[in-house]
Amino acid sequence: MPKLLQIKTSLFANQGQSSQLSDAFVAAWQASRPAAQVTVRDFASAPIPHLDGAGFQAFLSQPDERSAEQQATVALSDTLIGELQAADVLVIGLPMYNLGVPSTLKSWFDHIARAGITFRYTANGPQGLLTGKKAYVFATRGGRYAGTAFDTQTDYVRNFLGFIGISEVEFVYAEGLNMGDDSRSNSLAAAQSELARIAA
What average pLDDT does range 121-138 have in this prediction? Predict the structure, then answer.
């Protein structure tokens, strides 16, 4: 049976527009796949801690050399990686905060980027190890940034996912959400129509 991992990064949990769009996609996707399994990670209710030097060193150390705190860091990382390894489909709700990605998403990236587990370096450069997956990203913005120099999210997220082996990445944008009622409603309606199409 197919498995889907949903990542919610909005500060506002289920009230965030990115969460609502990704929820709508997951519901539509699951409706035509009733046997599918869905795992949800909501960073508003359970934020991923930022990685510090001791945490990063834990990834490089032998298990018997780790402190209790480092063991907890590795255990969390292993759990997050296991969820992603098991998933066939990855769904990310992605609001734009101060022209960047939510810091908790970056924390999640830092915990799942593990040399020898999710990627490795070869003579020809890095090779992602999480292949055969599809990712959908629901990007919500107050202004209109897609295709401009202010869109720091799209290439970053696409490149990171590609780095760990997820090369099939599709973005759905809902922009101009703070640019008046008409802009908001039209953009959300277009995003809803697009997500219904790709979830079929």
Answer: 97
